[in-house]
Design a protein that fits this description.
Layout lengths: L2 E10 L3 H9 L4 H4 L3 E9 L4 E8 L6 E11 L3 E8 L2 E12 L2 E12 L8 H8 L2 H14 L10
């Protein structure tokens, strides 16, 4: 089984508190992460979800993954883990104040565990690692947080 690893840094002129408000509200993710089509809150509230079902657009069929927030340091770090669906994985978003705004470091690791998606695992991995889509996510996150995009490292 091949792992899909996503690591990088997005930068924005927005203040850390404004970026945090967007990142911690999982329901906003489809507005800034191009691979995500929909988010349904499963536990918690819309502004502070504890668990949510993410629907990703894929070449085969919609990929639905349930994720739970495992820990959070408000304004600094958000950790998530998959709790259901055809993908097993973990993710972390860390915010750091910089002179020009905020750096958002992301680290995600996913493994496909569904036989339905195994035949296209390489396609999914390639789509997930698409630098243009990752840069677009950083740009959209920056704007949604009220800032301008900076130089991303994806």
């Amino acid at each position: 089984m091949a792992a899909i690893d996503l690591n990088g840094t997005w930068r924005t002129t927005a203040a850390p508190a404004d970026v945090w408000a967007v990142v911690v509200d999982l329901t906003t993710w489809p507005r800034w992460w191009p691979a995500i089509d929909d988010v349904e809150v499963l536990a918690g509230s819309a502004s502070a979800p504890e668990a949510a079902r993410f629907t990703f657009g894929t070449p085969v069929r919609p990929l639905r993954v349930d994720m739970a927030v495992t820990s959070s340091r408000p304004g600094e770090r958000l950790d998530v883990v998959t709790v259901g669906g055809p993908v097993r994985g973990t993710g972390r978003l860390e915010l750091e104040k910089e002179a020009s705004g905020t750096a958002v470091r992301f680290a995600m690791r996913m493994d496909v565990r569904s036989r339905l998606f195994k035949p296209v695992e390489r396609v999914l991995a390639g789509a997930a690692r698409n630098d243009d889509r990752l840069r677009q996510a950083g740009d959209d996150l920056a704007r949604l947080a009220g800032g301008e995009p900076g130089v991303h490292e994806v």
